[in-house]
Design a protein that fits this description.
Mean pLDDT of chain B: 82
Shape of chain B: globular
Largest interface: A-B, 45 and 49 residues
Shape of chain A: elongated
Radius of gyration of chain B: 18 Å
CATH class of the largest domain in chain A: Mainly Beta
Helix content of chain B: over 70%
Radius of gyration of chain A: 41 Å
Strand content of chain A: 35-45%
Distance between the termini of chain A: 98 Å
CATH topology of the largest domain in chain A: Porin
Structural class of chain A: alpha+beta
Number of helices of chain B: 9
Helix content of chain A: 25-40%
Low-confidence stretches of chain A: 69-181, 203-212
Number of strands of chain A: 14
Number of strands of chain B: 0
Structural class of chain B: mainly alpha
CATH topology of the largest domain in chain B: Rna Polymerase Sigma Factor, Chain: A
Oligomer: heterodimer
Strand content of chain B: under 5%
Distance between the termini of chain B: 53 Å
Number of domains of chain B: 2
Order of helices and strands of chain B: HHHHHHHHH
Largest sheet of chain A: 8 strands, antiparallel, barrel
CATH architecture of the largest domain in chain B: Orthogonal Bundle
Chain lengths: ~475, ~180
């Protein structure tokens, strides 16, 4: 019969009251509580959304202003311009039309073949402007001192006699072809347009307004600005559609990001190991850069093929406060004459704290093969991208805890290294939404928040955990429009 | 809060969770330290034990009870403390004390504090082996490994510890009589 162990019965679960102040002393020796440094995913998302929203709004407003300058309003604006530039006594139209049709503007002295738009404008200061240095000479002396004439009135009365500026001619010819306009006038329209285009465009922003009195100049300036908006260069990609069915462009982009990790148990119960991995590895940085070639279709659909390099850094922070180190000391004793007597072997056990802080690095090279849809919003382009990303290679170096919770190297070839990571992660999914801001005729700035979801774990199937490393980033870059 | 969740949060260095863990186990750990070290330095060693617990918690694998694990950390800390203070002197030659059988009846009637006082009288070396074997339930082989002594030394020290207790009990009885 076994004797009862009263000591164990009474003392094994024995407790004692603890002084309140002891916790403070312990707390003072613990590592400071750190608010978990979360990557500002929320703020980056908010920033990206705000950016996209702002760009959308700019696009919408820009589109509205363009809508407001649709063909009918254009006529009105041009009429305003005309009224601002018209004089009561002379008009270039008279020169042109009179020259081509020999109408009743008898004071025109231009010859029949001329499309002369040059004029001698008499201002208060006596300044003059030669709008088109073409052949022939103008017989019309024009004064800009009379702001009264209205285009509406003029066009209602007599188109051919309308006292308008060159822009007004466009209005008269394009918007309200009159029955009274003779065939000669119509025939000369093309010539006039050509002449006007070559004559007016170079002076849009400069000489015309400089010749006007202040009030008229203001009107003319605003009108000319509007005219700038409504007279885009159709060859510019920023204003027109893709001329051909397909177009090519090249994106070069990069940015900082965040690599969230997930752990799943591969086999058995290993929640403690997961907790230990999470506790000892902290995300430090992540960045990527790459390039991709885009093939755009007129419909807005775009195919993209690229190459992307991603680097993720973790800190492995390990502390073992019960670490021990054993050293062996051998003392040999000799007699005075040098004769060996004996050897004393002593093992010394040193206990202490082992601290490790290792910077782990994970590198990925991927090939994104994406499908995108691009939509024009004003001057900007909004795009959505999705598609598979094929991993070419994955490398890794540093240290992590093994399943026995001992620190082990993951650098291939290092002493005692464990082989738990794949060299190829396989296929991932890419989601991105971006916006393009035109910079020049060929270049656009690009902002694209994206998320790369790794479908497969980065670890081998034989490893106890399934470790996935995704990647979220805010990419900045440029697009070169090849054609 | 579940124990696993508490441990996970302690591993994440959450102060609230660490405080909860401390509140839960501090009375027990203090009692252990009191048995091994004595009342003078028990609180200091208990602090050291908890610091080790928090620093070493990531290595708790969930095998066995958490209380058992934390007790083991506390016991190890006490032994390290005794080693550093050179209080673990192994009496290789022993003394010539006759071996007494501990009287179960006398012990059964004593309270925990009286038993603690009784253990306090044992020299540190013997006391440690006694605590490890009789109260914690360690085998002599484990004790020998833990203290870096021979298994036979562990047995002899336990015997001597029992003699001390018996002698203390006799002295107490004489005083009472």
């Amino acid at each position: 019969m076994t004797e009862r162990n009263f000591f164990r019965e009474k003392l094994y679960h024995h407790t004692m009251p603890v002084n309140e102040g002891l916790w403070s002393a312990i707390e003072a020796q613990l590592p400071p509580e750190q608010k978990q440094k979360r990557f500002p995913v929320f703020w980056m998302t908010l920033f990206g959304t705000t950016l996209l929203g702002g760009a959308l709004m700019i696009g919408v407003f820009t589109q509205k202003s363009v809508t407001n300058t649709s063909p009918q309003p254009i006529v009105e604006q041009q009429q305003v311009i005309a009224s601002a530039m018209t004089t009561s006594n002379t008009s270039i139209e008279q020169d042109a039309i009179g020259a081509s049709s020999s109408n009743e503007n008898s004071d025109n002295k231009a010859t029949t073949s001329t499309t002369t738009l040059s004029s001698s404008n008499t201002l208060g200061s006596g300044a003059s402007a030669d709008l088109t240095p073409t052949s022939g000479k103008s017989g019309s002396k024009r004064s800009f001192n009379s702001p009264k004439p209205s285009v509406t009135k003029q066009t209602n009365t007599n188109n051919s006699k309308t006292k308008m500026s060159p822009v007004g001619i466009i209005t008269a010819n394009n918007s309200q072809p009159s029955n009274q306009t003779n065939s000669a006038s119509q025939a000369s329209t093309a010539a006039i347009d050509n002449a006007l285009n070559s004559a007016i465009l170079p002076y849009r922003n400069t000489s015309v307004t400089s010749l006007l009195p202040l009030t008229e100049m203001n009107q003319a300036n605003s009108s000319i600005n509007l005219m700038t908006n409504i007279a885009p260069d159709p060859n510019c990609y920023k204003f027109g559609d893709i001329g051909a069915h397909y177009a090519l462009s090249l994106d070069v982009l990069g940015g900082i990001g965040f690599s969230p990790k997930t752990y799943e148990q591969n086999s058995g119960e290993n929640q403690d190991y997961i907790s230990a991995r999470k506790a000892t590895e902290q995300n430090q940085y992540a960045w990527s850069f790459g390039a991709r070639l885009n093939l755009h279709h007129r419909s807005g659909l775009t195919g993209r093929l690229g190459l992307q390099y991603t680097q993720v850094g973790d800190v492995f922070d390990y502390r073992d406060s019960l670490a021990t180190q054993t050293t062996t000391r051998i003392d040999s004793f000799f007699a005075a004459d040098g004769t060996f007597l004996y050897t004393e072997v002593t093992q010394v056990l040193i206990d202490g704290t082992l601290v490790k802080k290792i910077h782990n690095t994970y590198r990925y090279v991927d090939i994104p093969l994406l499908v995108g849809y691009e939509m024009r919003l004003g001057r900007n382009i909004v795009m959505l991208n999705v598609g598979p990303v094929f991993n070419l290679t994955q490398t890794h170096e540093g240290q992590i805890l093994d399943s026995m919770l001992h620190p082990r190297s993951i650098t291939p070839g290092a002493p005692g290294a464990i082989d738990i990571y794949k060299t190829n992660v396989g296929v991932s999914l890419y989601f991105g939404a971006g916006i393009l801001f035109p910079l020049t005729d060929r270049l656009s700035a690009l902002i694209e928040p994206s998320y790369l979801y790794r479908l497969s774990p980065v670890t081998l199937n034989s490893y106890e955990l399934k470790e996935k490393r995704h990647y979220a980033s805010l990419n900045l870059g440029v697009r070169y429009h090849i054609n | 809060m579940q124990e696993q969740e508490l441990i996970r949060r302690c591993n994440a260095n959450e102060r609230t969770a660490q405080r909860l863990l401390y509140d839960q186990y501090a009375p027990l750990i203090l009692s252990i330290c009191r048995r091994y070290i004595g009342s003078a330095n028990a609180e200091d060693v208990m602090q050291d034990s908890f610091i080790r617990v928090f620093n070493y918690l990531a290595q708790y694998r969930g095998e066995g009870s958490f209380e058992g694990w934390i007790r083991r950390v506390a016991v190890n800390t006490c032994i390290r403390h005794l080693e550093k203070a050179k209080r673990l002197k192994v009496d290789l030659y022993g003394d010539n004390m006759p071996e007494y059988a501990v009287q179960p009846d006398a012990i059964s009637q004593m309270g925990a504090n009286e038993l603690l006082a009784l253990i306090d009288n044992i020299p540190d070396g013997y006391k440690t082996v006694f605590n490890l074997n009789v109260i914690e339930g360690y085998q002599h082989k484990e004790i020998a490994k833990l203290l870096g002594i021979e298994e036979s030394s562990s047995r002899s020290q336990l015997t001597k510890a029992r003699k001390y207790i018996q002698r203390s009990l006799e002295v107490t009885q004489k005083v009472v009589l």
